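Notes from the 1:1 (GR / supervisor)

We went over the backlog. Supervisor wanted to see one worked example end to end before approving the batch request, so GR pasted a single chain during the call. The sequence is below; no edits were made to it. Supervisor asked that the structure be written out right there so they could see what the output format looks like.
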Amino acid sequence: MRPFSPFSIKTKLGTLVVVSVFITTGLLMVAVRTSTEFRFITVFSVIASMLITQFVAHGLTAPLDEMTTVARAISDGDYTRRVRAGRRDELGDLASTINLMADDLEAVDRHRKELVANVSHELRTPIAALRAVLENVVDGVSAADPETMRTMLKQTERLGRLVETLLDLSRVDNGVVPLKARRFEVWPYLSGVLKESGLAAAGRPGLLSGSGGHTRNDVHLHLDVFPSGLTAYADAERLHQVVANLIDNAVKHSPPHGRVTVRAREGEAPGSLALEVRDEGPGIPEAERHRVFERFNRGSANGGDGGTGLGLAIARWAVGLHGGHIGVAESSRGCRILVTLPGSSPASH
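Structure output shown during the call:
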């Protein structure tokens, strides 16, 4: 039950009845003292009561009409419409409830669209790599030997893992996504990530150089891991998302025949990892650095790159699950993204 309020509809209706009674009583007293016929008093009383009732009724029905219009717009999928709130009666409470419902529906719709965009973004790379291998086999460029089939099998398995991973995005805002963290050697892991991304990988442990075939073939990739036996504690699949998206972003913003450096070192804490990806592109203006990890933010330095603006947002999400940190670090040239991962599970901190 709503507590008594001088602005409630019950109070307003009660006031309307009381005013109507006072008007009728006043007119009757005037009729008795002036010997006016009661039929005229009755007509005046009815007219006055109707005018007051019309005024009060308009104040009650007008917001109801607005709520009906907004509710119909919401049912048609327009979640941007809102009811003007400001009344202090039951209709004001109803308006606030409708607006809250619209906010929730808009958030659900936005999350649904983001999930679809995330799926499209994350599945694009392995599908493109698998298609390239199949086209080479069909065109006779490559033979369907066991090595080629193993490459396609890895991409297919990665697609399956990505589907499971991307489904977790729908639960990010509602709970904790479990991590399958383990300790592994950084050099073979990163070189494997680059190979799966379609980048040529060759060289000795600690130094990897090659030409990028990821989204461009004119970018030189340099992998620097020290010491050669460096290890990290992380969920390998989540970290794969981080590295792949950072490299993809760096390659896209690199100048012709530019250089992208992936550098891994021991972190400040025991067992932790400091990973950075640096390019030679135009860099990120300092005023925009706090926004580069937002979803659908594609930056303005290059007028947008035609992507969905999800890569860095996904990287931040995956790093956050590990209890680590990702950010834009200072650099004399290009853009430098620094990732730090703790040496143990986030639950142990």
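Supervisor's comment: Strands lie at 181-185, 207-211, 220-225, 231-235, 259-266, 273-278, 325-329, 336-341.
Batch request approved.
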